[in-house]
Write a structure and sequence with these properties.
Keywords: Membrane, Transmembrane, Transmembrane helix. This protein is mainly alpha-helical and 264 residues long. It has 2 domains: 207 residues, Rossmann fold (3-Layer(aba) Sandwich), CATH 3.40.50; 37 residues. It is 54% helix and 6% strand. The chain is built from 9 helices and 3 strands.
């Protein structure tokens, strides 16, 4: 909108599907951009984040290249590990698909980030080494996160990709960095969505059934009752005691009245 012009225009941007993703563009999988992990002053956004992470079937966690070891990223990892434990627990050794992956973004801004154009092999090797060191540093950061300790081996095997937009991507010549692998993993997630949905349901059901089974087993061993049943029995016992006390009071009053009449 230009200065002094009160008119407001809507801009619609339409983009086509990349050929690599044409087989999964059927509306059966949604990609949801979820903000909120660092918006402490926006409870509505944070609540939306909590709901989405607890119900989703896969997580792609994006971290900017210069934020891989910050406290904000640590809080993010701890939060999603708690809210989406069903996904972190599903990333088991030997599993065909990884429902959780990390993506380091904007690596083209690194010192040698724009050198992967095939023109200078020495600079290209330097860029690849720089990105490999960045991934190793981030993986070591994940291994130190307390919230991931409950998922043995997760930090060692979780996929860590690196993406960026360089000349090759802009000219359409080639998908630089790990963009090609990222698109392949999206295709794999689409193919495995039914299994991932089923896995989420099973893990949630198991999370409910196991504590309940342990509680019932404890009741059988100790001869006790579940909490609600115990409360009901206690209320019934109290009611019976009240009835007995009321009957005794009536009997006492009757006897006292008779004795008073006799004495009169």
């Amino acid at each position: 909108r230009s200065q002094g012009d009160s008119r407001v225009f809507d801009l619609l941007v339409h983009s086509g599907t990349r050929p690599e993703l044409s087989s999964i563009a059927n509306g059966m999988m949604k990609l949801i951009d979820v903000p909120g992990h660092n918006e402490s002053d926006n409870p509505v956004v944070k609540e939306c984040k909590d709901v989405v992470t607890s119900l989703c079937h896969a997580l792609m966690i994006l971290v900017k290249y210069d934020n891989i070891t910050t406290s904000a990223t640590a809080d993010l990892v701890e939060g999603v590990a708690k809210d989406a434990a069903h996904l972190f627990g599903a990333s088991e050794p030997g599993s065909e698909f990884a429902p959780v992956m990390f993506v380091i973004t904007q690596v083209d801004h690194l010192e040698h980030g724009d050198a992967l154009d095939g023109n200078d092999s020495e600079e290209e090797d330097g860029a690849r080494m720089e990105i490999a060191e960045l991934k190793a540093k981030f993986r070591a950061f994940l291994e130190r996160r307390p919230g991931l300790a409950q998922f043995p081996g997760f930090a060692e095997r979780v996929p860590i990709l690196a993406t960026g937009i360089d000349k090759q991507v802009l000219t359409g010549r080639k998908l630089a960095f790990d963009l090609e692998e990222l698109l392949k993993r999206l295709t794999d997630l689409h193919r495995a969505r039914e299994a991932l949905i089923e896995s989420r349901k099973v893990r949630y059901a198991t999370g409910i059934a196991r504590p309940l089974g342990r509680a019932l087993a404890t009741c059988l061993e100790t001869g006790g009752h579940p909490v609600i049943a115990t409360d009901v029995l206690e209320r019934q016992s109290q009611q019976r005691r009240k009835l007995v006390m009321a009957a005794v009071s009536v009997s006492t009053l009757a006897v006292g009245g008779w004795m008073a009449a006799a004495a009169w």
